[in-house]
Amino acid sequence: MKDCFSIVVPVYNRASIVCKTLDSIARQTYRPLHLIIVDNNSTDDTLSVISQWKQQNESTDLRVTVTTETSPGATSARNKGLRLVETEHMAFFDSDDEMRSNAVEEYVNAFAESPEADIVCSNSLYHFADGRTRLMRYRRGDLLHNHIYHATLRTQGYAVKTEFIRAIGGWDPQIMVWNDWELGIRMLLSTPIVKAIDKTLVDIYMQSESITGLGFSDKAGQWEIALDKADQVIDHSSRNDADTLHRLIHYRRIILAAHYLKEGNSDLAHQLYDKVMSATRRDARMHLLMPLVYLYTSMGGRGAATLIDRFL
C-alpha cells in the first residue's frame, strides 16, 4: 500500500481563483493524498467555495480537510495545517499557483530513492502579468549561500519530511513577507540532506495580490523584520562562517534599499542604506561594494549577487 502524502494550502480571499489551484492538486497522478486547506479570515466567499469544492472532489484516495485559522498571516495558517499533517512527507502550496500533474509523484519517488533526504527540491516556472515567463532552477553548490542570495527554497518549490520541519519550529508567525526565505535559512542551518530534481513541477503566477508579491514599498517594515530575524537565527547557530552569512543578509538589505529608491521612496531607501553602511563601516570590502550594488540595482541592474559572491 502506498504512503499518503499531505499538501497544506493557506487561503485568504481567493474565491475567484482558488479552485484552479485545488484542481491542479486533484489532478495529481499520485494517490493517496491528504489536502489540508486553511482559510485565514477570508472576507469573501472563499470558505464557501472551498467547502463546496471538497464536496465535489473528495474521494477515498483524496482526503480533503477544510479548516480555519483566525490568527492573521499565511504563516499562521500553514502552521495550523502542519499540526494536522499525519504523513511522513508533505508540501506547502499557495492558493494562486498550480502544481503540474506529476509533482507529488516525482517528490515521492525521490524520497523513495533517497530515504535519508529531508528535503526534495524542484524547478518552478514563473508567469508574469505581461506574459513573460522565467524558469527558476534550484541552485546547487553552497545551498545556504544560494538561498540567502536567491531564495531557492520557495514555498512551492520543495517537499519535506514532516518531522524535520516540525523539529525546526515550523513557520515564524511574526514574519508576514519573505517568510519562506527565513524558514529556508533555518532549515539549511540545520544541515539537512537535500535532493534536487531537475524538473519543472510548479507554475507560479505573479499577480498584484499574490502571496509571492510584486512590490516592496507597500509592505515597508515587514521585509526588514524578515531580515532581522535571519540575523538572529544566524547569531544562534554557532556557525564558523556567521560573519559571511551576515554579510549576505546585508546584501539583501542593500538590494531592498535599492528597490525602495527605484519605486520612488527615497526616505525608506536612504534609511536602510545608512543602516547597512553603518553596520559595515569596519569591513572595507563591503563598505566599497554596497554603494555600487545599491546604485546598480536602483538603476534597474540585475545579477549583483555574482559580483558580491566573488568578494565574499
Summary keywords:
Spore Coat Polysaccharide Biosynthesis Protein SpsA, Chain A; 12 helices; globular; 312 residues; alpha/beta; 2 domains
Description:
With 312 residues, this protein is an alpha/beta fold. The protein folds into two domains: 5-205, Spore Coat Polysaccharide Biosynthesis Protein SpsA, Chain A, CATH 3.90.550.10; 217-311, no CATH class. Helix content is 45%, strand content 18%. The chain is built from twelve helices and nine strands. Strands 1, 2, 3, 4, 5, 6, 7, 8 and 9 form a nine-stranded mixed sheet that branches. Strand 6 and strand 7 (133-136) form a beta hairpin. The longest helix has 21 residues, at 242-262. The protein is globular and about 65 Å long. The relative contact order is 0.11. The model is unreliable at 209-213 (pLDDT under 50).
What proportion of the residues form beta strands (DSSP E)?
15-25%
| Number of separate domains | 2
CATH superfamily of the largest domain, by name, is Spore Coat Polysaccharide Biosynthesis Protein SpsA, Chain A
Low-confidence stretches: 209-213
How many strand elements? 9
- Secondary-structure class: alpha/beta
Shape: globular
Structure described in brief:
This protein has 312 residues and is α/β, with parallel strands linked by helices.
How would the blueprint of this fold be written?
Blueprint: E1 5-11, H1 18-26, E2 33-39, H2 46-57, E3 62-68, H3 74-84, E4 89-92, E5 98-99, H4 103-113, E6 119-127, E7 133-136, H5 143-150, E8 158-161, H6 162-167, H7 179-189, E9 194-205, H8 222-235, H9 242-262, H10 266-279, H11 284-298, H12 304-311
Parallel strand pairs: 1-2, 1-4, 2-3, 6-9
Antiparallel strand pairs: 4-8, 5-9, 6-7, 6-8
Helix pairs in contact: 1-2, 5-7, 7-8, 8-9, 9-10, 9-11
